[in-house]
Amino acid sequence: MTAELTRGQNHPLPRARLEIRVSAGTPVVAGATLGDENGKVHGVERVAHPGTPTLPGLEVSRQAAADHRLAVDLDAVPDAVHRVSVLLALPAGGHGPARFGSVAAPFVAVTGLDGDEVASYTLTGLEAESAVIALEFYRRQGAWKVRAVGQGYAGGLAELFTDQDLPEAHRLAGDIQDAVARGLARSVPAPPARTADGDRSLPATAPAHDSGTAAPQGAGGGVPSTAPYDTQGTQGRQTPAAPGQQTGPQPPQPYPNASGTPGDSSATGRPSTATGDGPIDYSHPRRQHGAPPPPPPAAPPAAPGQPAPPVAGDATGWSMEERLYNQVWGMFEDLARTAAAYRSAVDFADSRMEKELDQVLSDPRNRIGGQGDAAREQARARHGQLVAQAREALDRDVAQLEAEAEVVEPALPAAYARWDNPVWHAYRVPMEIPMALRLGDLHLSEADRIRIPMLVRLPLERGLWIDSGRAASLDGSFTDSHEMRRLGLETAVAHAARLLAVYPAGEFTVHVIDPAGSGTQALAPLVETGVLAAPPALGAAGTADVLARLTQRVDLVQMALRGGAPDALPPGLDTSQQLLIVNEFPHGFDDRAVNQLRYLADEGPAVGVHLLLVADREDSAGYGPLLDPLWRSLLRLTPVADDHLADPWVGHAWTYEPPLVPPGSQVLRQVLTQVAAARRSWIR
């Protein structure tokens, strides 16, 4: 049985060979120090970090990532070592968070090699700290134990190492951060060449996956990571059997599917590994094999020496919808690769110029006369030439992707389209559930004019959290809390409307809990069109009633499935997919209601009950670590543009933009009116 530790608690270790699994929700550096009986670390050779990942009995990750696996063999550590301290630190000098208080509480688990958890610890209470000692293995009377430490350092790794009496603490901290920055920039190869017909192929063999890392949202070609994950709050804790904890190379997945399991090839319609000598086969494993559908329309011939004009649906698939899904995925991959290649080239140019300048300054003869100045000018000129060449290649690739986006966006079906797409004006209630749903857009600073649709697979297997906490916009301005709550609920309504619109009539039901009644205006499109199962629940009594009914539904369906009698449900039970919108959580929730909500978040998705939470996490701070599993189980989105999502494949911080309805547009109400009419006809 797993021991859930709190700060200061210890637990005996049943074996010496262990794994340490870290889930942080944002890229962190993982390392470990080997100390004596007093905790003193006697030299840099006793520190395992990305630049020196292997020590006797210890191996850590070689890169910053949101999730890690660290290997420990306590029988193999030197006899002089009495303490093994596991540390986490936020990368310095990047665009990510600078303190642990602004991200989700990191989760650390000690497991056996078979994956069974021995002990776990959630690092709560961190604020200004940027480095923390998470766990400590220590000898006691010849046996090893693990202790939950949670000691944070606002001064980062330098302060942490100084506290352990490590000589040259500041230099080692700088070396670690430099190694992380260089490794991240150079770990991704240049984009693969595109063939004349525009088809994309991944390398026949994916790059080696760093040992000691896991990717709960889709592993990428060689970079330890998760696929767009939330850098400020919500990656679920992974178990050994959970998809995404692959040990071999995996192709990247650009979008978080609702379950956070893009490594599951049966869910994505793609093979789980890139092998062989040809392009990846995108044929859907759940479809019946037979004659493939006709190919997409051929592109007009290209001028000699010019790339072929882009065509919507040029990817492989069994339907136009699947082709477009795979094409959007390919566009994401191409943009990630070309941006990574540009950043790597700039990093190389910077390091080369720095090396050349160091060589100039190290020669005393260059300090006299104009030789030194000339050498410096030559180094800067070569740097500028390299950067210009990289920018030229980036601009060429971005222009090609921009042309493709201009062709693909108008051709997208309603489930993939923005609210301003004309396809919504021809909307009709569908007869089948689509493959995926658009939850917004993603873009990078190097190609700000290109928007890549962020798609999740259907049916949802993971809830959503619209973070209504006060946040800084990308231009540095702040949105006040009242406005953020309003925008958060409007975003939730837009997501709920999309879900209602893409499901057949009667196959999706929406419930709303608005305890204080503060969301009346934002909820008006759902209420006035009549698409809700019942009016929004108000007050503590209304909250308890809705939660009790949905909890009972989950229990009944689970019992029926476990008993092998899915048809033996009570007559009148609504078997459609259920969505519960909760506004201003935890207002109006007592302890029982909070536990019921946690139960729905954990058990509901498997039986068709999903959460859409609109909440400011700070409002629930009084619950302490009790709600950390809830936040980790939900995919965090924002009602304003924010760069809180990142792909672990190359480590880019992607800017997320919510799918808001254009101001003054009536498209959402028109769509919901048709949904309500179809629902009434279906009930009759």
Defining key terms:
single chain, 684 residues, alpha+beta, five-stranded antiparallel β-sheet
Low-confidence runs of at least 5 consecutive residues: 185-229, 231-292
Q: Helical region count?
A: 11
Biggest sheet statistics? 12 strands, mixed
Mean pLDDT across all amino acids: 79
Strand residue content: 15-25%
- Shape annotation: globular
Give the proportion of residues in helices: 25-40%
Head-to-tail CA distance between termini: 52 Å
What is the alpha-carbon Rg in Å? 27 Å
Indicate the structural class: alpha+beta
Count all strands and give the number: 22
Can you give a write-up of this model?
It is a single chain. The chain has helices at residues 156-163, 169-186, 265-268, 320-362, 371-411, 481-502, 520-529, 539-562, 591-603, 628-633, 667-683; strands at residues 3-5, 10-12, 17-35, 47-48, 54-55, 58-59, 65-73, 83-89, 107-111, 117-122, 131-140, 143-153, 229-230, 436-443, 452-457, 463-467, 508-513, 577-585, 609-615, 634-637, 642-646, 653-657. It is α+β, with helices and mostly antiparallel strands and 684 residues long. The strands form three sheets. Strands 1, 2, 3, 4, 5, 6, 7, 8, 9, 10, 11 and 12 form a twelve-stranded mixed beta sheet that branches. A five-stranded antiparallel beta sheet has the order 13-21-22-14-15. The longest helix is centred in the middle third of the chain and has 43 residues, at 320-362.
